[in-house]
Amino acid sequence: MDATGHIDDLGSFIAASPSSYHAAAEVARRLDDAGYATLDERSDWHEIVRPGAKLVLVRDGAVIALALPAQAGPATPFRILGAHTDSPTFKLKPKPALTSNGWLQAGVEVYGGPIIASWFDRELEFAGRLVDRDGIVHLVRTGAFARIPHLAVHLDREVNTGFTPDKQRDTQPIFGVSGPDVLTHLAHLAGLSSAHDVGGFDVVTVDSTPAARFGADDSLFAAARLDNLSSVHAGLTALLRAAPGPAIAVLAAFDHEEIGSESRSGAAGPLLATVLERVSSALGGTRDDLARAIFASWHLSADAGHAVHPNRPERHDPANRPIAGGGPLLKINANQRYTTDAIGAALWARTCDKAGVPFQEFVSNNAVPCGSTIGPITATRLGIPTLDVGTPVLSMHSARELCHVADPGRLSAAAEVFFTGLP
């Protein structure tokens, strides 16, 4: 896929994925259209997991897909691209109905580490899942529905010299002056008669502005949730294009990375380990076979990274200065916040060379410590050799992020080569 086709499809994927639950469902839908069979965690896998099978499993807001080569056996290694489906945002509280001075509001709490100021004065939608009292899950989204309003400059003369929003007082969005409360509205969208029919919900706020290309040469791309739907989409499109190789190709898109990954659908949970164990067992493998497969496997932890900011270049390393349009990042950290080592770096160089795409190293300024990814978590839990990569972006954790139109497609092209087990 060319850069234009890839970036347009990324925009469509983001539009279809306002929450982690929608993202997992959209990945599964596309794979179902491509002939992937659904794995049921409650079923015996020995009949469905076989050489040549293409399979997909959804657990809450996480999704794992596997493409087994025709010669797959008990000790066949895995080539895993790991990413995450969640993004920093605000999440509805259990009793979300609020009113204040004639305004209807929704009670929310901060999820992850958003740039809070970026969420003000833009039209937001609510999206996620409702679970009715019978245990049936309903995916819902409102479209443009709410807004977190700034205090006018006339009422806050210091707004441009030191705006620090109060996370409780200042972030509760408004959505009207009359009508049903937010949970009742969501219940009606799900086809339920009232909010009383809702047994539970996981609903977040989402920037409702569509993704857009812009700039003098149309080379810039802005969208919500590039961190990290750009990596989920790159892995998905690569998996769909990749020719069968000697390894089992795996896309593992986890939830809850932005809050530490410690959940049953997060990278720190047992999901991936359980899937790999069950696949090896269904192929006739022993624990020794699985250990040999793990030793020969690779994990590509794909998560958005930082391009050099033109207005604050001093925040970046003075020598390693990745730019938008320069290709995907190889992320390196001496303290293993990223897991790339010399062997992984050499593998990535060969992979990008085979794919015909440039890449660039990212390392943090020593005075500006970096974040982390699912890479160290997966390497620690499973012992799989891991390297960290990603698309360079600006405004990470903003309600709306920015990248170059060419870089997501280049990440996908490199991932395609990685999945084949070459080089």
UniProtKB/TrEMBL annotation:
Which EC class does it fall in? Answer: hydrolase
Per UniProt, the keywords (alphabetical) are: Aminopeptidase, Hydrolase, Metal-binding, Metalloprotease, Protease, Zinc
In the record, biological process GO terms are: proteolysis
Record keyword Hydrolase present: yes
Tell me which GO cellular component terms the UniProt record holds.
cytoplasm
Q: Which family does it belong to?
A: Belongs to the peptidase M18 family.
Can you say what this protein is called? Answer: M18 family aminopeptidase
**Organism source for this protein?**
Paractinoplanes ferrugineus
Q: Give the classification, highest ranks.
A: Bacteria, Bacillati, Actinomycetota, Actinomycetes, Micromonosporales
